[in-house]
Design brief:
The structure is a single chain. With 152 residues, this protein is of the alpha+beta class. The chain contains three helices and eight strands, in the order αββαββαββββ. It has helices at 3-9, 25-35, 64-79, and strands at residues 15-17, 21-22, 51-52, 55-56, 85-93, 102-115, 118-128, 134-144.
Length: 152
């Protein structure tokens, strides 16, 4: 089936379910090693006993960019088999994520748009923890090109 046919089958409101992710000090360390972000927010319990402006945390926290990565994986995993490509993501971190949390990203197709240059989808994306608390929210954009990238 072509990317155009797949795009036509998609409806506004379609849900995209992500995979739950169990956060641990090990997953935080692994992300730090991959991103080279060793900020004490993610490793130093004593440092986290201080306050940051008007904010206080109860423990070390997961990297915010790991939320971004989970949102990207969720949208990309859903798009690629359909011939779509993730093009943009904007996100806001709303609540901290702690070791022991299990977070799950989800998305919902919002507007579809066809232009002279392509077919586009927007997604409302969010990540919630095991208690249903939304920890991150954003918007993603995807394209369904007429020609696959890299094709001649």
């Amino acid at each position: 089936m072509s990317a155009t046919q797949e795009f036509d089958k998609i409806s506004v409101g379609d849900a995209v379910s992500g995979r739950p992710f169990a956060v641990s000090r090990e997953t935080i360390r692994e992300f730090a090693e991959g991103s080279l972000d060793f900020n004490p927010l993610h490793f130093d319990e004593e440092y986290m006993k201080s306050t940051f402006g008007k904010t206080a945390f109860r423990d070390v926290i997961m990297h915010g960019m790991q939320n971004f990565a989970l949102m990207t994986r969720t949208v990309t995993d859903w798009l690629l088999p359909k011939g779509g490509y993730h093009r943009r993501l904007e996100a806001r971190w709303l609540n901290p994520v702690y070791p022991g949390d299990v977070i799950t990203p989800n998305a919902r197709v919002s507007p579809k748009n066809v232009t002279d240059k392509g077919r586009w989808l927007l997604f409302d994306v969010e990540i919630a923890n095991q208690d249903g608390l939304v920890v991150a929210r954003g918007e993603a954009m995807a394209e369904f090109p007429d020609v696959m990238p890299g094709a001649r």
